[in-house]
């Protein structure tokens, strides 16, 4: 007997009940937050760096050179630069070497001589980078210029072993880090001290927060100090002296404003079934019918026996019986909620899985009961 239980997402019928409407949530402030937590300074950012390098000293877990010819080419080129010339056609069987890509982030205002962490990842088919040593690797920016040099012992947060076809592994062995593994060779020019203005960029577009930032800055430093260009950028007049500009920006970032209520949004991960909603989500009274469909298939063997002396053959056939039944859908009334906790309690009353909640929330929004924006990722 084979039982197939299939939950119809489209069977979650959402019925809007026009019994009453909740009072809309006022667009008022919820908490005090500093400007440094809402906005960043335009031009003050990190810059990604990358480079191609060689890791040596592996315990027989390096690249298979027959399958990764670029590793062999890199070793030959490195040896030639060191004055070692191999005979033409030399077939090197290297097991302790691996080709890797090295990445790092160059912080804002970083100066030559400072160090940054680097991440090293295998480029070929090395089994593990554990215990490896990264040779000196130039790290370049988007403009092709070298901004740092990386070198050092790798730290790999994993372990593994294999024998006689059996293998065990903990965490990932093809990537690791080198704390303070790159030394900065040149700085990146910053527009921080150029001009008589600075631009603050909000982390997300919000006209209310931009207006409140302008009001707080002008109240502290005088009218005309700040001006909102749009819902995401605010231009601020700053002192010309670097010392005064740094002190001025420090005071600006420490100012607190009343953050506006965020846009009601529900984030749905269609792959994992995760559902996340923010505090502004509201639910109006509605009713939801939640049921399932069960398909039951039973197979019985039927033997066909020929008559005596008929020279026939015994034949076995299968006789199938298909039954379709649908469990009675339970109509559950969800009371309107103006807070996140109320919405969660109302949805938990359905007893549905996260995958079921995706369809239920979509149907609620279509019916006008869920007051939020749905975003599927």
From TrEMBL:
Chief location bin: other
Subcellular location: Bacterial flagellum basal body
Transmembrane segments: none
Statement: the UniProt record of this protein carries the keyword Signal: yes
Signal peptide start-end: 1-29
Coiled-coil annotated spans: none
Pfam families in alphabetical order: FlgI (PF02119)
Keywords: Bacterial flagellum, Cell projection, Cilium, Flagellum, Signal
Family: Belongs to the FlgI family.
Function: Assembles around the rod to form the L-ring and probably protects the motor/basal body from shearing forces during rotation.
Subunit structure: The basal body constitutes a major portion of the flagellar organelle and consists of four rings (L,P,S, and M) mounted on a central rod.
Name the UniProt record assigns to this protein: Flagellar P-ring protein
